[in-house]
Design a protein that fits this description.
This protein is of the alpha+beta class and 279 residues long. 30% of the residues lie in helices and 27% in strands. The chain has two domains: 121 residues, no CATH class; 141 residues, no CATH class. The longest helix has 14 residues.
């Protein structure tokens, strides 16, 4: 059961903890719209904690965050999946401010921290958990197969539900081979990647196109396989639309050092961004 906590503000670091419902209330007030019934509880919480006055005027410290949320020039979504679940994190960049936000598994609130745009890559890498690994490229540094191979491996791991992954290597390898026909050395490498997987993340960056009519999007997906290092999922390529991936979709995983992952994150960010319209 996910529980929403009261909104909070850390004045020493100018950071906020807010749930999506709180942001919904602030968005309604910013646009001059009435707060709907489903957001009334969050509305009252903002008042009780001093974020809003009785006349619904917001505390001055909220102004930069609300402005960025209302008119972003770039949005970064960072979905991190681990044993404790999926968290939604990212960044929002406006004309005059930039915030990085991150969540905790099982909680509705996100922490919004003001960030200098020049340090945005550092902040995103930290939220993604990027760090140096001692892993060396294996014999098969690129794995090419289908999504059916990975699906079969995960399904077998879930079926076995073993405390020790050492006992799972044989059954998982057999399941992958049966589903995809993958052969050595890729078969052994993929098997051990799934056994050592500590988490994975997907990062997408979106901003208005130069013509102002569309949205440009770039994406990156990375598997953190612990002692076996980082593996970039080149195929299916991000961003992935719902329903676009099937068991027959091509899967390509490429070994990457932390420095190479850093470079790929850097390449997601456009060199120039249009200014958001002033309200």
């Amino acid at each position: 059961m996910r529980k929403r906590q009261m909104p909070s503000y850390d004045s020493a670091r100018d950071r906020f903890r807010l749930a999506q419902q709180h942001l919904g209330v602030l968005g309604c007030l910013y646009e001059g719209q009435p707060v709907p019934a489903e957001l009334q509880a969050a509305h009252e919480e903002l008042k009780l904690t001093g974020f809003l006055a009785e006349d619904d005027s917001a505390m001055p410290e909220l102004a930069p965050l609300v402005s960025v949320l209302a008119g972003p020039i770039m949005v970064v979504n960072l979905e991190v999946t681990g044993p404790e679940g999926v968290t939604g994190n990212g960044a929002i960049l406006g004309n005059d401010a930039c915030y990085v936000y991150e969540t905790w598994p099982g909680q509705d609130e996100a922490e919004y921290v003001p960030t200098d745009p020049s340090t945005l890559i550092w902040a995103l890498a930290r939220v993604a958990g990027l760090r140096e690994r001692d892993a060396k490229p294996p014999q098969a540094a690129v794995i090419r197969t289908t999504m059916a191979a990975m699906d079969a491996g995960f399904a077998e791991l879930g079926r076995l539900n073993l405390d020790s992954t050492s006992e799972a290597a044989g059954p998982v390898s057999s399941a992958i081979a049966e589903a995809s026909g993958l052969e050595e050395p890729e078969l052994t490498v993929l098997t051990h990647l799934l056994l050592q997987l500590t988490g994975n993340w997907r990062m997408t960056v979106a901003w208005p196109s130069a013509d102002g009519e569309n949205t440009d999007i770039r994406g990156l997906a990375v598997l953190d396989c612990g002692p076996l290092g980082y593996w970039v999922r080149d195929l299916p390529a991000e961003p992935i639309l719902p329903g676009a991936v099937t068991p027959d979709s091509e899967l390509q995983l490429t070994f990457a050092t932390a420095a190479e992952v850093w470079e790929r994150i850097t390449n997601l960010i456009p060199d120039e961004l249009p200014a958001a319209p002033k309200n």
